[in-house]
Amino acid sequence: MALDQKEVTGPFAKLRKQLGKLPRRPSPGEVHKLRTRTRRIEAVLQAFRLSDRTKGGELLEHISGLRKGAGKVRDMDVLTGFAASLPVHQHRECLVALLEQLGLRRAEAARRLHKTVRGARKPARHALQRCCRRIGRELKSGNSEWASDAAAVALQLSGELANWPKPTAANLHEFRLKTKQLRYTLKLSGDKAPLLSFSGEAKDRIGEWHDWHELAAIARKAIGHGGRCEVLDLIQSGEKKRLERALWAANRLRAQYFKPQGRGYKLGPRVIKVTAGLAA
Prior knowledge:
By secondary structure, this protein is mostly helical. It has one domain (5-279): CHAD domain (Alpha solenoid). It contains 9 helices and 2 strands, in the order ααααααααββα. The protein has helices at 5-21, 28-47, 54-84, 92-140, 144-162, 172-186, 194-222, 230-257, 269-276, and strands at residues 258-261, 264-267. It has a two-stranded antiparallel sheet with strand order 1-2. Strand 1 (258-261) and strand 2 (264-267) form a beta hairpin. Helix 2 runs antiparallel to helix 3 (54-84) and helix 5 (144-162) runs antiparallel to helix 9. The longest helix is centred in the middle third of the chain and has 49 residues, at 92-140. It is flat. The model has no long low-confidence stretch (mean pLDDT 87).
């Protein structure tokens, strides 16, 4: 197994093309692609240790703003979908107030994203092209140093997950971010290891819980009346169920791929095999 050039350089070319034609009011699907592609590029720059070099650092600076802006719009799209699906029979006015608040936040986030894209479009596309060409040349020349760097980063991330404290609501989101970065790094090989499936399930379940957690926080501010509220009850119940599922998935991931050691875990042989395969 070695680095897969398509997996490595694909996001660069796709993001460059998307930035050239991104509309003023992008659809939820376009926003999701923008966010995912920027995250994958960040993972490549970090895996090859290019983020602290001049060209890589310049690109990282441009796309970090795009990722954050797209993330805020995406969050409102997801939360609106969750809120609209609530089976509310009473307190319909509370649901309307929540949806209006989400709509206002989405509009403001979209306005800021458009401003960020407009300012970053030209320099970001130029930096994407330069980095993509350089990475392509290095991969064609068989640069083994980058493959070793990627394997080292994957092992480091795996070690951090193995030594993670017991998953709780307080640290689940950070656990998910580490898991996500590990997945993007492992995908650079093009391999479809079972670890990607297990970590993907944990990532998705934690992400869903975090979205409901954010929805609950916004709902409490949007709904001003005192006493019980069906809308809040439904959201808080949904948040609790998804927290249980998220904790189960996180613990299952560690049990399957990391070995118990004292009060913590250590890297299991399957993790070592997959991460070391990046440099093969």
